[in-house]
Write a structure and sequence with these properties.
Chain lengths: 212, 473
């Protein structure tokens, strides 16, 4: 990553992979024991690990194991996906497995925020549309799906459905400002003034102005 | 749109500017860090050649991976040792205070902030941990963030956020005996759903909340996130100020206390504050709650039957069926009498001194059922020391509990404290997700510390209010 302008994510195209179920939590997406690491590298292979393997490491039935979905990059889920812990390891694991966008009925907030920080759109659709898209993907694992973040649509087969992308998320992705560090660092002086205005912040806790 | 609530007041005081995304750049008054979610953020900082902007408003502890038995270094688990060393290096390089285990101040991040008085009303507080909502008990605006946001806070002292709606949850009446803050929050989550709070901040109010001590308020705010709300808070009052007065931050500095108290009073929700939504719950009707499933929203009163999946709203049915299969419970039965193998008294929800005292009260003169492995993991080294000073450790040990060092422990099983196979655990923690306690077949039943104590001595889920009879029968 660099301090330069971040990438623009107007749309994501590719093939889909369905993971069904409501309230799929981050402990399922990446079990805590795989978080004993100091970098995110290599997390991809542990995505949904306990759903994918039994105690003897034999594969269980799970879309992430199925050969026809190995190149998929658009994950299709149901309600309250990503609830639970704030671990960014969850979207990191999905991203490193190959996921570039998630379409679902609803998302837990911290999870959606973590996805945005990685440039992964989380777009919401009705229950009906989520289920229809999952069924479509099952039958047509090789068919192209287009997630248009700017226009707020998902197109698959001969169908285009309306989706919702949170306003700030859409702006951030479409204008390429989802990498907020540089953006916010530019306001360092205003931040310092704000800090000084707060009664609980003591002067020596506010950094001195540096000319850089 | 809400107006004049504590959330609005604190937000306005910390808003720096509006970003091109339409989000607000919000100043963060306190950044708490721990070993699991911070190393990657420090790595990103290094990659960009950036420094920590507000090291003196940043505070570190180690909690998730610390062993709770043998804490000598290097840790037996090399991965844990690596995470610890990484954190030590990062805080040293950046000049951040670190409550490592040699200081006597170490503990779960959501226990140590309040106990040292670092957590204060009217602050914005973040941590790379979803239970940061705990600190809202003091009237702070506190929420969990992901690693990229940790990088933002480290580098700039701010986060980019959208303003949320405010729902007031009024818990009226008085709690009956044997009913605790934990039972209130499990009831709220059951009623409003695990995603009911998405897009909202919860303000907890009403007589049943106001009469709670700070620890009870923390248990409630702690689990806001299990209801989908990223933050929850209680307006500060005399109970809050009394707690703060005796902390490290103020005990030798009464003047600063008085100055800040004026600020704390000023950010309370106005009498005529407007809320996006108000929900009222009758506190006197709440009984001890236990979970029967694999989300914190799947709770029932101890005397209530486990619901038929078909009786639930359509989107909850499949989850309920899966949960009942995993937990091996049948609709129509109650949870009373459900066999347990492990009793875990710990976590940032319920491992503070009053929690341990209340549980010890139940345990005293009784014995842990021979079929049960029982452990107490105090929330911090200070909680542990205070409990030992009162002799609570003796009570637990004599009853057959393991008395361990401070940390997250079996709340998420990142150290060696884990469920094995399909063990069932009566747990005072906050998440009963499949695999949460370290074994993917493990079964977690969430409940109050009182109920954990009762289950430990009987070997099964037990209504603590009937324990006298159970034991003498
Ligand atoms: S005790 Fe459990 S919930 Fe609390 S911070 Fe530790 S792991 Fe998270």
């Amino acid at each position: 990553m660099s301090d330069g302008p971040a990438d623009i994510v107007e749309y994501v195209s590719g093939t889909g992979i369905p993971v069904r179920g409501n309230d799929i939590d981050t402990d399922q997406i990446i079990p805590a024991r795989f978080m004993k690491v100091v970098t995110f590298d290599g997390l991809g292979e542990f995505a949904f690990f306990d759903q994918r393997f039994d105690d003897e490491d034999n594969q269980k039935e799970h879309p992430f194991n199925e050969p026809q979905f190995q190149n998929a990059n658009i994950l299709v889920v149901n309600n309250n996906f990503g609830c639970g812990s704030s671990r960014e390891h969850a979207p990191q694991a999905l991203m490193r497995w190959g996921i570039d966008a998630v379409v679902g009925e609803s998302f837990a907030e911290i999870f959606a925020g973590n996805c945005l920080a990685l440039g992964i759109p989380t777009v919401t659709v009705s229950q009906e549309d989520a289920e229809a898209l999952q069924a479509f993907v099952d039958e047509n694992p090789d068919a192209e799906i287009d997630v248009d973040v700017a226009a707020e649509t998902v197109t698959y087969g001969d169908k285009t459905v309306d989706v919702t992308v949170d306003d700030a998320q859409r702006k951030a992705l479409v204008e390429g400002v989802w990498d907020t560090t540089a953006l916010m660092k530019a306001n360092a002086n205003a931040v310092r003034e704000k800090a000084k205005s707060l009664p609980y912040i003591q002067d020596h806790e506010v950094p001195a102005v540096k000319d850089d | 749109m809400s107006n004049g609530t504590l959330y609005d007041n604190v937000w306005d005081k910390h808003a720096v500017t509006e970003l091109p995304t339409g989000q607000t750049q919000l100043f963060i008054g306190l950044h708490l860090i721990h070993e699991v979610t911070s190393p990657q953020a420090f790595g990103m900082l290094r990659e960009r050649g950036l420094e920590v902007a507000y090291p003196k408003r940043t505070h570190a502890t180690v909690d998730h991976i610390v062993p709770t038995a043998d804490q000598s270094r290097p840790y037996g688990d090399s991965a844990a040792e690596e995470m610890m060393s990484e954190l030590e290096q990062n805080v040293r390089d950046s000049g951040i205070v670190f409550d490592d285990p040699t200081t006597g101040n170490q503990g779960i991040v959501h226990v140590i902030g309040p106990e040292q008085g670092i957590t204060q009303p009217g602050m914005t507080i973040v941590c790379g941990d979803s239970h940061t909502s705990t600190h809202g008990a003091f009237g702070a605006l506190a929420f969990g963030i992901g690693t990229s946001q940790i990088r933002d806070v480290l580098a700039t002292g701010t986060v980019a956020m959208e303003k949320q709606k405010v729902r007031k949850i009024e818990v009226t009446g008085e709690l009956s005996a044997g009913v605790t803050a934990k039972d209130i929050i499990l009831t709220i989550i059951r009623k409003l759903g695990t995603d009911g709070g998405v897009g909202h901040v919860y303000e907890y109010a009403g007589s049943a909340i106001e009469s709670l001590g700070m620890e009870g308020r923390m248990s409630i705010c702690n689990m806001s996130i299990e209801g989908g709300a990223r933050a929850g808070y209680v307006n500060p009052d005399e109970t809050t100020y009394e707690w703060l007065k005796n902390t490290d931050a103020f005990k030798d500095n009464p003047e600063r206390f008085e100055t800040l108290k004026t600020y704390w009073e000023s950010i309370r929700s106005d009498e005529d504050a407007e809320y996006d939504d108000v929900v009222t719950i009758d506190g006197s009707a709440i009984e001890p709650v236990v979970t029967w499933g694999t989300t914190p929203g799947q709770g029932i009163g101890i005397s209530e039957p486990i619901p038929e999946p078909e009786s639930l709203s359509p989107e909850k049915q499949e989850t309920a069926r899966r949960a009942q299969k995993h937990m091996r419970v049948k609709p129509g039965e109650t949870m009373e009498g459900y066999n347990i193998d492990v009793a875990f008294l710990g976590s940032c929800t319920n491992a503070r001194l009053p929690d341990l005292r209340a549980a010890a009260e139940i345990i005293k003169g009784r014995e842990v059922d021979p079929s049960v492995r029982a452990m107490v993991v105090p929330g911090s080294q200070r909680v542990k020391a205070a409990a030992e000073a009162e002799g609570l450790d003796e009570i637990f040990r004599e009853a057959g509990f393991d008395w361990r060092g401070a940390g997250c422990s079996m709340c998420l099983g990142m150290n060696e404290d884990q469920l094995e196979g399909d063990e069932a655990c009566a747990s005072s923690s906050n998440r009963n997700f499949v695999g949460r306690q370290g074994s993917k077949d493990g079964r977690t039943i969430l409940m109050s510390p009182l109920m954990v104590a009762a289950a430990a001595v009987t070997g099964e889920v037990t209504d603590v209010r009937e324990l006298e009879e159970v034991v003498s029968a």
